[in-house]
Fold each of these.
Amino acid sequence: MRMLLTLLAGISLALAAQEAERMPTPMPILPSKAEVAKVVREAQAWDVHSYAKPKEIRTLHIALDLKADFEKKVLQGTAVLKVKVLDPAANSMTLDTRDLEIQKTDASPDGKAWKTVDHTLAAKDPILGSKLTVSLPKGTHFVRIGYATSPTATGLQWLTPEQTAGKKEPFMFSQSEAVHARSWIPCQDSPGVRVTYSATIRTPKNLRAVMSAVNDPRAKRTGVYRFTMPNAIPSYLMAIAVGDIQFRALGQRTGVYAEPSVLPKAAKELEDTEKMVAATEQLYGPYAWGRYDILVLPPSFPYGGMENPRLTFATPTILAGDKSLVSLIAHELAHSWSGNLVTNATWSDVWLNEGFTTYVERRIVEAVYGRGPEEMQAVLGRQTLQHLLDTLPPADTVLHLVLSGRDPDDSLSEIPYEKGALFLRTLETTYGRKPFDAFLRSYFKHFAFQSVTTADFEGYLQTNLIAKFPAKKAVVPVHAWIHEAGVPNGAAEPRSDAFKKVDEAIAAILKSGNAAALGKATSESYLAVPAPWSTQEWLHFLRGLPADLSLDQMKSLDAAWHLTDIGNAEIAHVWLRLAIQHGYTPADARLRNYLIGIGRRKLIVPLYTELAKTPDGQVRARAIFKEARPGYHPLAQSTIDQVLGLKD
Ligand code: BES
Ligand code: ZN
């Protein structure tokens, strides 16, 4: 009982930290087990990153009519929200917005007859944006908001023609995850709220719009484009891009969109996409979204990939020329099951999206490319995890995160990815691949088109896997995996034979002090990187070099393999980090070009961080950033502002 009361006290403390008006009615003394379970569930499903109150009024559908104004760098138009009133006492609706200019709010019982209603826009919270409260007369079923976005909307980037591949036309794209949909759509911006949507997008006539919706690959350039998304999705999956975008089919239901000059290379690199979709269906059941297309964006796209449904957004840095980075597509495709079909209910549950997806990504890699490449990815992932465990505060190594008062973007490390994937790999090896695959298939089916909490998953796992194999119950400490820091005992240990050879090479190079020994120590060349190794082997090699590498050794490595000039963005990233650490100046010019040319946060932020460790480096970093900043996405800009101490 004491535990129970402590639990309840803890929960109500957590709730008190939220808005007082959202407090549930106090529990009676001595609550029943069921009541406790309900409070725990609700507390866990509570989204601290949204002002919306979906238990009172819930959005069912959003109809957008927006004009993309490239002169002003704004979207201007209306959003009509079809709503369902769940609490008859509710006489207003709260929505999430950030930097939106709210011009008019109307309400309607039928979507035809509109009446202007009052609204108030609260002061801006740095993480959550501004709460918009719209008064609603009784009988309201539709809410219409006339609005414009800000040129500095955190979820949009407006590119000048110079920032594109073609250099002739401007480009605009969105990135809504985690809490940026609200900067271009007034909405209940919580992953626990799912809506269908439709949109009319008006653009300059020579440009084309695409969305995370049904796109018509053969659409004529008329300047007016219509979209529908018939499946209910969370707001963070709403996405748009406008530019000189062309389409090329890859397979029956797969294709690629890109600027014309990028299209041939993109189509070649991504030619296995159809195979990947088929392989994932074999593993986890039918693909639920119709088509699977990929949009390759200009280099300032701040992520590697974003799993916008029906239309993955991807960085051009995956176009390595040898398909060595297409596991990123496997990752975004995997989200079509883990994330888009079964969605984390709050950002505290993000491991349900990213951990599952990282696990599924590797299963796809194995199915399409074989066990060898899968093992290399898994070992690299395990190394990344170890590095995080060694450097992060223990509280940040827990899977189920506590995020009150924290920006979900900033607090998202690779822990949910790699610890989550290792947890599932451990379940797989413990329970056997067949039973575990069947379990995952049933999980995706059971929770399809729903948003789930960590507690939902724990309950489902208990009933549908653990209870079925009582003899194994004690083997995987599920609670520790999810709620405690670090990695529990008995975790799976990924191994790669290919990497053993790489380790031998490192030993040889150290012994001889000469990089040429590397060539002798490795056996076969099998991919078109400028050395005898695959990208993954290179990454393992470079990560494994000792910290006290001499400048001469750096020089001889570079002379042997031209690492400073390597085109592969991932290998270049690790090499440039080494170059900064060792003061290897011949790479200076490349570093500058790299940082100016690419906007993917994961590739550039660690380099700025490394530079900022010395006073000299700090000066260089600021000089490069000054040049690069205007080309970066707002999210990358603000992260690096912080890294370089340019903002508090
Ligand atoms: N959904 C994520 C991107 C994301 C996560 C955006 C959280 C905002 C907040 C996407 O699926 C992802 O994980 N992208 C990775 C690539 C992947 C291969 C690890 C990336 O961008 O690096
Ligand atoms: Zn992901």
Amino acid sequence: MSDTFPPGFLWGTATAAYQIEGAARENGRTPSIWDTFSHTPGKVARGDTGDIAVDHFHRRAEDVRLMADLGVNAYRFSVSWPRVQPTGRGPAIQRGLDFYRALVDDLLGHGIEPVLTLYHWDLPQELEAAGGWPERETAYRFAEYARSVGEALGDRVQRWTTLNEPWCSAFLGYASGVHAPGRTDPAAALRAAHHLNLGHGLAGQVLRSVLPADARLSVSLNPSAVRARTQSPADLDARRRIDALANRIFTGPMLNGAYPEDLFADTARITDWSFVHAADLATIRRPLDSLGINYYAPAVVSAATDEFAGRHDGHGESEHSPWPGADSVAFHQPPGELTEMGWSVDPSGLYDLLMRYTREAPGLPLMVTENGAAYADRPGADGTVHDPDRIRYLHGHLAAVRRAIDDGADVRGYFLWSLLDNFEWAYGYGKRFGAVHVDYETQRRTPKSSALWYARLAGTGVLPEVPVG
Ligand code: FCB
């Protein structure tokens, strides 16, 4: 196996607006569903909120310098919808857009390619009050917002991503309720999934019309590398069900213009899917320039029996399932090493996904738009932060990417989640994913050894044999 990555490979880090920006009430920004959710007692660990987060809104220039020092050549960030379009409709506000213009200019000034995500989960609260993603209208609002951002930044941003992980928006947000807006209504979650798909399609259409011809469009999914616990027909059927709900519900319409028939059958008792209009599927199936894959850990499933009834799917504690119509499925913790999230360390899941989409979407370049791990990192007495576990995690997963490239996958880039320790949704600041440590009292940034390791890799394009720190 070669240890060298292809020339032009994008070496990036990734973040999301609500997780890092703070400045929640500045410059006309209004609450998003995550502001409301995090301020609702009991929803986020310790009552943490993104009010201040890691103050990136005010430390933008310092954070871009940090990236430049690491020598990465790309940065994936998201635009906060309520910062640029506070009511979720109508004209965008310039002071909101100005922040992103300045960010992009800083990035370009340091030779770092901006990779912009329009929606990383922060729906304006006003749109949730009007029904949120279960309502069709939200998809049209999203396309309008996409137009504003496209018109404002299309002259300087080439790479555009519509949605981040619509599975989480739909099923953690509206079925299990562990994410904002915290609803627990399986039928609403399936409607949300369709309207996210529709929003992706409509936004893509609008972006193609306002962006220069060389703009590149993408979406970042979190496909599940789902495995059956045994090869029994019942366990294989459990895998099929979860594959439909986690993966094919998005890739079906986006890549092939159709929902899978088995998904309709599995969920028939919950909804009749009459909210899917015939013309929607052609709208959703828009040609993409790449497919973004976010990967952390595989899932192992079996048929639920008395022996295996638990639901350990790693997506937070809730008595409500994020998997509508899949009560007959049990999730299992795979054996082996776990990260601080309790997610298993298994790079073969990433390899399998890259090979799967190489087969299923021939000719479509792939991008690993998130991968990384949380560990309980602490500064030592000398102030440095050593995180050998993260280096081993990254090394293993990058070796899997390299192996997939050898085996024919057209992978164009890798984005480490995350640049900085940040607000990890329902877990608040308790889980540190950063390559750069943040002291939340002082906002001091300290690159961990993994950041320095990653910088060497980004600089040379060569994966070291041993994951030395
Ligand atoms: C992904 C999210 C990202 C981050 C990582 C750990 O699901 O897209 O914001 O929280 O998980």
